[in-house]
Amino acid sequence: MERVAIVAQPGIRSFDLAVITEVWGPDRSRVGVPPFELRRCASDGGPIALPGGLTLMPDRGLDWLSTADLVVVPALAEPDDPTPEPILAALRAAHARGVPVAALCAGAFVLAEAGLLEGRRAVTHWWLAPRLAARYPGVLVEDAPLYVEDDGLWTSAGVASGIDLCLHLVREAHGAEAAAAVARSMVTGPFRTGDHAQYLDRPVPAADRITETLAAVREQALRRLHEPLDVATLARWAGMSPRSFARHFTAATGTTPHRWLLGRRLDEARKLLERTDHPVPEVARRAGFASEVTFRQHFGARVGLSPRAYRAAAATAPGRDDSVRKGS
Questions:
Q1: For the chain, first and last CA: distance in Å?
Q2: pLDDT on residue 208
């Protein structure tokens, strides 16, 4: 069972608290998601006032962070409000023990106040990025990605990107299938990677013909990942030139067609490694990689493990249901 600690203090945003609770709170063991123990940790046991007239009752003290496998920091509604020193000390101690610490949106200000982001990359809501950089000049603030990681410290951009980061953390710890199951139950997409843009310079209306065309192309590509797809093929499906297609695709998604395809192929490979007994060369072929060597290189760079090591780790993960493992 993975232990997840919410760092609770007065003024934390109710939306962030709800996201964390929805991702790690429900029992989804019936759909292959391992059980989690989610605790609300605070410096004392009294009720905590939240914006909007809500109240949160903590169920553990800050000492519980010493037993957690993951610490998640919701944003403060007022990012400039100070965080009590006992919380900052507990965060520093958790990171020193090697526990991953994730901050949603303006939660980056809390990590920066603790001194954890000094000399490290971080993101927050694009509107708050200049304020974070001015207040903490030693933090390497980025204003484009949805979320980034540096030395076990995760930060995310505004609002919905907190969902993306939480799902990514589930994926990193428990695999693509577990993250997809959580995403399905939340009725949200599991595929936004951290390098998506926070906002688009030229938003395309949802009903626009080009947007609908690009969505159809992505859907068709997901059904045919095993084929040797390239930008020229996707552009042909869209009825555009490769250059025009790449420009529209990047404007609509915040990433290039090539990077999007690579990400989807790696997602498919993870699923195949988790749920089948296919040899690694067959996994590479079914995920659409040109060769096993190319697959191994990209997989290792993205996941940090070889395909075989990833499969072995997935096979022994808590909540693993071997009845879904098959060879076809």
A1: 30
A2: 55
